């Protein structure tokens, strides 16, 4: 673009001014030639004398040279002093052309000067009796034009240098910003999650850097949650494994162990193994929830699921002296698989029994609400301190570690419930019940996707 602009800038004005100058020159030449022609018109033949006399008063200051010749090209009159051609034959192209009866005009710009010439025949009764030749040589206008062209050239060179310099500065700045963004990206890719892109200003790059930083924040959170999860999980697995090793070592090292003690130890090993398998099952369930896309589910009646859960848990409740009350309102249905609903209700109700006291109650209720189903599991057990109400949904989080372990808990039950509920677009919260105890409230959508009213 710069090149095109420069070429245009350096040629167009010059061409136009050159044309204008030529136009003016030609007009001047033609009128001078016409004036000379008028002065000699009426002469029947041209001689040096009569031409000289006829032209004595004619003003030819407008041209550099004027020549009048006879029909053969012999000069009868020449305005030039040095190198006057009077009496000699001249064969300028234009004059030759004029002597053939034509009008001739020629102009050229060369070597810093405008050269223009014009010629026309002198007629007497339609006979060519001679020719008039005028010539103009101008360096003044030419030098003006030369000045103009050199001015234009220096201006355009100045502009070009400026444009090139500015674009270099801008592109360097751009590259530097890009490079710093790229360096931050590379750093993060190589595992430096604390790396951030630092860009000042308010342009698109700063916005991208901001987005990138937000992304890395998320990544860092996820990464630290993942590390925490792995370390918690290994810790959870380590405890029963350590117990199993301890128990086996005791049996192996104690050859005289009576069979009753040995049986007790083996049964403990069995319990620890069961714990291990519970933890791994829960872990697997969570991983599946984390990674998998929810399988498509239709609307499932909650009532039958609730009954099945209660059937399974009633013996446990009875054993603990806890009363299990169930209310299921017809029409309570949620968009989830029966397996998921079972998981949710079972975990909540089992907790309510586990963390209860003899003589306590557990009330499970399922009811339809506006476009949702609400499942409430309430107990008057040991309760959860208010500041812990949100923590209990975290993985491996337990309010009372010893009690949870004694009750066979893994600390993952509520996480699984929480993940299942939110995967189906629902919500769960826990609240304290006056007089002790806890209430878990689960809300699940009961309209299949695409079924929502507009
Ligand atoms: P756990 O396997 O230990 O039961 P959960 O994820 O199911 O793990 O529950 C996390 C913790 O929340 C439990 O350890 C317990 O301290 C507390 N909790 C859960 N449900 C209740 C409840 N109904 N009453 C009192 N505490 C509860």
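^ Assign residues to that structure.
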């Amino acid at each position: 673009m710069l090149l095109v602009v420069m070429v245009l800038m350096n040629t167009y004005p010059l061409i136009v001014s050159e044309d204008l100058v030529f136009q003016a020159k030609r007009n001047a030449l033609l009128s001078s030639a016409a004036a000379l022609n008028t002065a000699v018109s009426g002469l029947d033949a041209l001689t040096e004398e009569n031409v000289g006399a006829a032209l004595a008063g004619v003003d030819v200051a407008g041209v550099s040279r004027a020549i009048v010749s006879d029909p053969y090209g012999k000069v009868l009159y020449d305005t030039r002093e040095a190198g006057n051609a009077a009496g000699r034959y001249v064969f300028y192209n234009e004059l030759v052309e004029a002597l053939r009866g034509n009008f001739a005009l020629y102009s050229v710009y060369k070597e810093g000067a405008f050269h223009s010439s014009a010629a026309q025949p002198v007629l007497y009764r339609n006979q060519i009796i001679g020719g008039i030749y005028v010539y103009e040589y101008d360096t003044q206008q030419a030098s003006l034009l030369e000045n103009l062209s050199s001015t234009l050239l220096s201006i355009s060179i100045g502009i070009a240098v400026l444009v090139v310099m500015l674009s270099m500065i801008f592109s360097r700045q751009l590259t530097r910003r890009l490079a710093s963004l790229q360096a931050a990206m590379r750093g993060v890719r190589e595992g430096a999650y604390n790396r951030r892109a630092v860009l000042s200003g308010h342009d698109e790059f700063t916005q991208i850097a901001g987005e990138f930083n937000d992304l890395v924040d998320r990544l860092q959170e996820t990464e630290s949650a993942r590390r925490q999860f792995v370390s918690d999980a290994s810790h959870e697995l380590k405890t029963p494994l350590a117990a199993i090793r301890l128990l086996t070592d005791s049996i192996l090292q104690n050859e005289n162990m009576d069979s009753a003690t040995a049986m007790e130890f083996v049964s403990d090993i069995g319990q620890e193994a069961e714990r291990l398998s519970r933890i791994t099952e829960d872990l697997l369930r969570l991983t599946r929830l984390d990674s998998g896309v929810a399988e498509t589910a239709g609307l499932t009646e909650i009532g039958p699921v609730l009954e099945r859960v209660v059937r399974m848990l009633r013996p446990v409740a009875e054993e603990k002296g806890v009363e299990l009350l169930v209310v299921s309102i017809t029409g309570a249905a949620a968009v989830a698989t029966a397996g998921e609903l079972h998981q949710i209700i079972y975990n909540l109700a089992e907790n309510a029994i586990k963390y209860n006291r003899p003589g306590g109650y557990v009330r499970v209720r399922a009811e339809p609400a506006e476009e949702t189903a609400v499942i409430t599991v309430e107990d008057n057990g040991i309760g959860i301190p208010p500041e812990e109400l949100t923590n209990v949904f975290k993985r491996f989080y337990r309010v009372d570690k010893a009690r949870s372990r004694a009750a066979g808990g893994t600390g993952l039950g509520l996480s699984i419930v929480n993940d299942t509920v939110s995967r189906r677009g629902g919500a769960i919260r826990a609240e304290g019940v006056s007089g002790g105890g806890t209430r878990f409230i689960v809300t699940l959508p009961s309209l299949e996707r695409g079924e929502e009213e507009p």
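The CA atoms of residues 370 and 446 lie 9 Å apart.
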